[in-house]
Design goal:
CATH topology: Rossmann fold
Number of domains: 1
Helix content: 25-40%
CATH class: Alpha Beta
Radius of gyration: 18 Å
Length: 267
């Protein structure tokens, strides 16, 4: 596992965007350039700065998305895509609609209005497999360490499926629903922990003091279903990009270790 510590949120986002761009460009110049680069994407506040920087690169002609296929992590069950809190809406409003060469047919987001959620989730897994898996999955984590909507005690081998949202998650997300937890859908469709860790690389964004305990559990804690983020310890291509504010619960030795080995700002 790599832990890349940046001074603040802005620098964390720029580092992450540059890393993603470098992986896309390396793919397009390599032996597999005839197949698309498959990119997993999250919603939430953490990736917004990354999306802004990727859009800037794209519009400046520094990075093309013409050979990129995307799969999003999750979607609320029962929200139509036109709803301003659906993740389909979020992704188009914050990212896809601003790219100059993203092909609509290459965008994959779970359908929250499906009449058969189980079939929708199974088809999503099959489509990911049809591309040979995900090359890089970017994600964030919740204050309780959950990845996507894989709440604490979700199996670390889980696949895409229906998830029941905890009261805590609905309270946290209620800020987007008029501060009414009851207005937050009680279920979502989500990739599984195993879906994420099957990816060739996983890049997780962790920022802010409120995520400090989750970062410590991800990096220093034991592998446990209580902290689904801890599954990243078993992944050979896991990278944590974090800001200084999120490092408050790391031991001093751990903090110094990762600063030392990342010296040189390598991508």
């Amino acid at each position: 596992m790599r832990v890349v510590i940046q001074e603040d949120y802005g620098k964390m986002c720029r580092w992450a965007a540059c890393y993603i761009a470098s992986r896309i460009q390396a793919h397009n110049e390599g032996p597999e350039k005839d197949r698309p680069f498959v990119l997993g994407l999250p919603t939430g506040s953490s990736p917004i700065g990354v999306y802004k920087e990727l859009v800037r690169m794209n519009r400046a002609g520094e990075l093309s998305f013409s050979n990129v296929v995307t799969f999003n992590m999750d979607e609320y069950l029962g929200l139509p895509r036109e709803h301003d809190q659906s993740y389909w809406y979020f992704m188009h409003d914050n990212f896809f609609d601003h790219l100059v060469d993203m092909k609509p047919e290459n965008i994959n987001i779970l359908n929250g209005m499906t009449e058969d959620p189980e079939a929708e989730c199974a088809a999503y897994e099959r489509k990911i497999a049809s591309y040979g898996g995900i090359d890089l999955f970017m994600g964030g984590i919740g204050v309780d360490g959950h990845i996507a909507f894989n709440e604490p005690f979700t199996s670390l081998c889980s696949r895409t499926g229906v998830r029941n949202l905890t009261t805590d998650t609905r309270i946290v997300n209620s800020r987007f629903f008029g501060n009414d937890p009851e207005a937050v859908p009680s279920q979502a469709l989500s990739v599984g922990v195993g879906t994420v860790t099957d990816s060739k690389e996983v890049l997780i964004l962790i920022n802010g003091h409120n995520k400090a305990r989750a970062l410590a559990a991800t990096v220093e804690g034991g592998v446990s279903q209580k902290w689904t983020c801890s599954a990243l310890q078993m992944h050979n291509g896991a990278i944590i990009a974090c800001d200084e504010a999120a490092c408050g619960e790391l031991t001093v030795d751990t903090y110094k270790y990762f600063l030392d080995i990342e010296r040189g700002e390598r991508l």
